[in-house]
Amino acid sequence: MSKMTLSLVAALLSLAAAPAMAQCGGNFGDFVEGLKAEAQTRGHSSDTVARFFAPVRQDPAVIAADRRQGVFTLDFTTFSRRLISAQRLQTGQAKAREWDAVFDRAEAEYGVPRGVLLAFWGFETDYGSFQGDFNTANALVTLAHDCRRPDLFRPQVFHALTLFANDDFDPATTTGAWAGEIGMVQMLPGDIIENGVDGDGDGHVRLKTSTPDALLSGAKMLAHFGWRKGEPWLQEVEVPAEMDWSQAGIGTALPVAQWAAMGVQPRSGGWAADLPASLILPQGHKGPAFVAYPNFNVFFDWNQSFTYVLTAAYFGTRLEGAPVFDPGNPDPGLDQDGMKRLQERLVARGHDVGAVDGILGAGTRAAVRAEQMRLGLPADGWPTAALMSRL
Description:
single chain; Lysozyme; 17 helices; globular
């Protein structure tokens, strides 16, 4: 479920450096031959290239997994309850004690709290117990060949080749997630090269077998994404019965004093920090409510799903002692088919919702909010049957 992080600049440079050949699609064998030729132009020996690509095969299961991500159609309450079990919470607390010194080091060196690292560790691989069983080299080459996101995955093939040349990757046996991420906190080869940390001092970065390597590498990557040391990321709040709901959403950040003036208050204790914050209403103004501080945005560099990010951020607060959130009493949302119909109607009205896929993403939320404002409904970005009927 991790976001495949790679800078646009690196992707463009990779494409510019490639020989004049198909960047994706076509005969798979011919495509692999093109990768081999490009690898040699990048400075790898013909022997290294031959040994790396020898076991590589196309994997149709990878493409099937890429197209099948229905879990992200669930609402926040349902999704979070599925992912945050009592056992996962208790295991996280036990892991925090077991690896206390490593978590202390991660926060001291990179500023990332243990709750955040535990949340990703728990969600990505259930604390390392299941790291994925897809052959990583096959997954990367298959996704590079597929023409949906070649600019993301083609460079990762060459990053994996670099790891192989450094004796840190075996194309025949290295396994991980369907999208090519490796290890306990699921990082792509390029992220390992850029942010990998040898936490146990053995001279290698082994994210599959070394907990110190995995946790410190994850912390370094979050710091690389812009994590701000000593600042919070998420806080549960209570909202008034009436307010300007159009101010809610990740796109609006106001000082907490302004939220307080509108009647927004922390559910317990005081404000976590005197910082700009966004009001997050994942299921509308009658459902759970949070304020997201600047560090919350860093989560999107790990994964792009809003529901996943909010759940991971919330789980991080739970692991640091926050109470169970109040689910409120939100209006029922739409199922995937209903969401697709809504997206079609929004597109027909001129809104850009991205893919019509039944997933409530940022584009769909913005379009819903615009239509709610036009129709005089509470503009909280939560699509309901009432909105559907008005459209």
